[in-house]
Amino acid sequence: MALGSLVSIAASTFNRVMVVELSLLQIIPGLLLALHYFIQISRPNWGFLSDKGGNRTFWIITGVIILCLGSILACLGILLIPKNYLLGLVLSIFAYTLIGIGVGASGTSLLAFLATRTDYRKKAAAATITWIMMIFGAAFTAIFVGKIIDPYTIEKLLKIVTVISLFWIIISFITLYKLERTFKPKINKHLEPVEVTFFQGLKQVLLEPNTRWFTIFVFLSMTAYFMQEPILEPYAGLIFNFSVGESTQLTGYHQSGILLGMIIVGLLVTGVKFGSLRFWVLFGCIGSGSALILIALLGQISPSKDVLKYSVALLGFFNGNFAVGAIGSMMELAGYGIKQREGTRMGLWGAGQAIAAGNAMIFSTLFVDVLQSITKDVAFSYGIIFTIEGILFLASAALATRLITIPAKTKLTL
What's the burial of 297, exposed, middle or buried (CB within 10 Å: 0-12/13-18/19+)? Predict the structure, then answer.
């Protein structure tokens, strides 16, 4: 919940304020968001460290603290930009670097903890519950902040982010207290008789076909997933005249849709056994692609704000379907191959996601600016990017038909 809550503020509210209230080019917050994702290329190393040290709680807590600090400093950067542009920008770069480090250290270690301590039959349920909590944190925060932030001032936003950050640090300490001691893994001392370096461990997992091909799928699908993130709120503000509070709540509609989609699929997969993980990956990708094309078309006819809200919620619903299938597959595949490399595999896929997200941020924001300068048509420029994102989702669905296959009789390599 802490990760979802704080990242949603950085990706939505901060982004909106920079573009609309500060009148910065869309590419500036886009590059900052891309930076925090590119920093997460270090995820394989965080996973390897937690594999090697056996203390995942330390990395989870440390990551949350760094993430909170980065979020507060990002607010201060926005405060400084109108007064001292260069100083504010430098502080923002440092802040988003900390956000990336915090998410990478905490998120990778948490996923590795789940993958190693969850029974095979319960991995999909564990993935669903974990992402539901993360999305719930993002949705609740977006709606809560959207309700109280109008009339907007940066000083008010700084106070809100500081209080939320302190709250999540305390909650994280409470919920993780002695948890890992209860689930201490049984270490096979003969499993790895020699010390293995990070690069050796990374090379080992990259030689596994399942790991390598799934990394490609993660990269393509996550590029599609994240392209809308930095441009949705500015799109709502510029085309549909949403206020800061309304556009922040729009992110809440998206996250609520994701939450509903994940809960329904989680219940269907783990309860009534309806649909495989691959089926829901395909269903979610096709639905997400279609919803994005719909959102692109809405900008051309400028209907009521409610129509956009419902369309964004629909996009979130299909995103949630896709997320459960993809994350469940990732949790299962993490256990195939060389043992005691679950954290490294999770880190590799997390790095693939981070690179894809960073590229998506730069591509979507840069080309919105370029298209606007050429066409002088704001709605058309944003619509083209949403359409490209939809096509990428459909391409991911085609790739998933071949790649998301869990080998039933794969033997673990010792």
Answer: middle
Cβ contacts of residue 252 below 8 Å, gap of 6+?
139, 140, 142, 143, 146
Report d(CA 72, CA 350) in Å as an integer. 24
Structure tokens that stand for 69 in this block: 């600090």
Cβ proximity of 252 and 44 under 8 Å: no
Confidence at 382, pLDDT banded by 50, 70, 90:
very high
Tokens 């809550």: give the residue.
5
CB within 8 Å of 183: residues ≥ 6 apart: 113, 117
| Three-class HEC string of the chain | CHHHHHHHHHHHHHHHHHHHHCCCCCHHHHHHHHHHHHHHHHHHHHHHHHHHHCCHHHHHHHHHHHHHHHHHHHHHHHHHCCCCHHHHHHHHHHHHHHHHHHHHHHHHHHHHHHHHHCCHHHHHHHHHHHHHHHHHHHHHHHHHHHHHCCCCCHHHHHHHHHHHHHHHHHHHHHHHCCHHHHCCCCCCCCCCCCCCCHHHHHHHHHCCHHHHHHHHHHHHHHHHHHCCCCCHHHHHHHHHCCCHHHHHHHHHHHHHHHHHHHHHHHHHHHCCCCCCHHHHHHHHHHHHHHHHHHHHHHHHHCCCHHHHHHHHHHHHHHHHHHHHHHHHHHHHHCCCCCCCCHHHHHHHHHHHHHHHHHHHHHHHHHHHHHHHHHHCCHHHHHHHHHHHHHHHHHHHHHHHHHHCCCCCCCCCCC
Domains recognised in the chain with CATH numbers? 2-183+197-403 (1.20.1250.20)
pTM of model > 0.90: no
Average pLDDT value for residue range 194-205: 56
Query: Residues 344-362: pLDDT tens digits?
Result: 666 666 777 778 887 888 8
pLDDT tens column, 138-152 = 888 888 888 888 788
Tokens of 265: 């699929």
412, with CB counted inside 10 A (0-12, 13-18, 19+), is exposed
